[in-house]
Structures are given as structure tokens and as C-alpha cells.
Amino acid sequence: MKGKTVKKQVLMSLILAGSMVAVSAQAEEQAQNQNANTSTVKVSDVQKSEEKSEDIDQEITNARMRSELGSKSQWSFKSSLGYSGGSLNKPFDSIRPNYRASATIETLAALSGNVGVNYRVSKGGNLSAGTGIVVMDPFHGDITQSTFQDPRPSRKGAEIKRTQVSTPYLDYSHGYRALDMQMISSVTYSHYTEEDQTDYYNLMGNLAVNQTALADFGDSKWQGGLSLSLDKELSKGAFADSAADNMRYDYGVGLFPFAEYSFNDNYSFRTVFGYFQFAKYEESSELIQMEPYQSMGIGISLTRDIYLYPNVQFTPKDIRSDRTNVALSANLNLF
């Protein structure tokens, strides 16, 4: 009896082991069939694909327009700065001839612009807030002093503030591609804080709307576009000191064709035609065309977020070295 029991136990063990092997083989076969009918996708691959499809640089390829939109980070520092220098004869002079008005009307060289913070709302949408800043005649005298004497003969040495931080602003811009063109739409409100604007002209702020469109010229390295701008002054009340030679600005409209030729990814030639710019003053019922101007310069893309544009500005009606001004504009986005 004992021998039969042992044989029976051995037989049962062999049957159980065979069943387990069969089940394991069947499970492996099912897994192989399932793998043959499905594909393996990594989470990281999906994330990279989604990020790529949400990249605004696939729609906006122009270096200047990318820098105008701001960094692709959710939060970043955003600024647009410019230096308005002297004439071509004296580029670092204190006095800047007014090439869009009478040769006897002179302005001061200045470093000015906007500095602020940018929040990326969506793939192409950016909301930024900041303030304006200006440094008058930055390359002469002691810039640490709060005031300096005006070097223009017509002002007879009047005291001028060296640095002013004013005019906070709120801006929304959106970049996208439409009609096979690169587009940027923006709206900006600037709130006046300078005494000359708030107290003398009795103004509250300015509301501006801009639309830029850029098209490629086939396989050529040339690109051409248009920039349309509309702005309206918002007043707090009537202007008490209006006269024929002292009118308060009401609103303006401008259409600025521009063209670019790309040498490579970092350098391009750029020119802007400011021939169609009009201003409306409160005391006048007509749109007044401003003196046409043109700028020509080299666009330099240091990185995706840093763009420089050294240029000269002149009026086509009177091209002279003493009235052609030098300038530098820069878009700087950090983080």
C-alpha cells in the first residue's frame, strides 16, 4: 500500500507540473500575440510630441518677431530698449537733429524703452506689464546726477531730469500663422504719470492696437510685410492751453511696409518705410500726414530671445548726413 501511495503522489506531481508549464506557455503565446497587434509608446515620447506641436517657433520663424513675442518660458523678463543718437556726422553728440521736422527743431539723444515681466498665457499668447524708462543724453556729463543743463541753444541751459521712470503699461500680444503669413496682433494700454502729460495736457493714458504680417517671397531670402498701428489718447478733461502752435494729440494711424533680406540665421538686412503715418489733433478736423521717414539697418539675432537692430533714419525728401540720425533698438528677453 505504501508503494502505491508514493507512486500516486509522484504521478500527481508530474501532472501538476505539466499543467503549470502548459499555462505558462499559453500566457506567453497570448502576450506575444498582443505585442504583435499593439505598439509600445513611451510617456516621454508623447510629452515631446505634444511640446513640439505647441512650439510657437514652428509658426513664427522670423527672428525679430520671435523676440517681440517674448521668451517661451512661462515667466520671463521682457524689455524693448532703444538709443536715439545724434547725426551721422556726430553719432554720439548730445543733440539729435529732428529729421521729421524743421532742421531748426532739435531733440536730445536718449536711451529709452520699456522693462517688465512677461507671462506666457498660451502657445502664442503673452501678457506683459512693466514701465517706461528714459535716460537723457546718456554719454555726456555725470549720469548719476538727477538733473543737467540742456545743451540746446534754444533752451538756454534749462534744467532737465537725467532719468525718468514713468508710464506703466499693460500689453497682450499673440503670435500665429494665417493666410500662410506670420502674424502678431497686440493691444497696449500705457498709463501716463509724467506731469507734462497728466497736469499740462490733462491726459490719462494711451490705448494702442498693432497688427504685423510677414510673408515669404517664394524660395528667395527676401521677406516683406506690413505693420498697421492705431492709437488713441485718453484724456481726463479739456486742454486749457490750446493754440495754433500748441495742439493736443488725439489719435493716429500708421501703415509701415518693411522688407528683410536674410544673410543667414543670425544676420539680416532690414528697412522700414514710414511713409504713411497720420496724426489727428483735437483742434483740427483733418488727419495730418507726418513727414515720411525710412530706416535701414542690420538685424542681429544673438539668441532666439535677444535681437539687435542698429540702423540709420532719414527723410527721403532731404537726405543729408547732418539730418540722418543713428539709432539702435533691442529686444531683450531673459529666463
Describe this structure in words.
The protein is an alpha+beta fold and 335 residues long. It folds into 2 domains: 2-40; 62-334, Porin. The chain has 4 helices and 18 strands. The chain has a 12-stranded antiparallel barrel with strand order 1-4-5-8-9-10-11-12-13-16-17-18. A two-stranded antiparallel ribbon has the order 2-3. A two-stranded antiparallel sheet has the order 6-7. The longest helix is centred in the first third of the chain and has 36 residues, at 2-37. It is globular, with a radius of gyration of 33 Å. The model is unreliable at 1-28 and 33-52 (pLDDT under 50).
Number of helices: 4
* Amino- and carboxy-terminal Cα gap: 87 Å
- Which architecture name of the largest domain does CATH use? Beta Barrel
Order of helices and strands: HHHEEEEEEEEEHEEEEEEEEE
Strand content: over 45%
Average pLDDT number: 85
Text of the CATH class of the largest domain: Mainly Beta
What is the SS-derived class?
alpha+beta
User: What is the overall shape?
Assistant: globular
| Biggest sheet strand line-up | 1-4-5-8-9-10-11-12-13-16-17-18
**How many separate domains make up the residues?**
2
Assign the CATH superfamily of the largest domain: monomeric porin ompg
Number of distinct beta strands: 18
Largest sheet, in brief, is: 12 strands, antiparallel, barrel
Which segments are poorly predicted (pLDDT under 50) over 5 or more consecutive residues? 1-28, 33-52
Residue share in helix: 10-25%
Radius of gyration: 33 Å
Output the CATH topology of the largest domain.
Porin
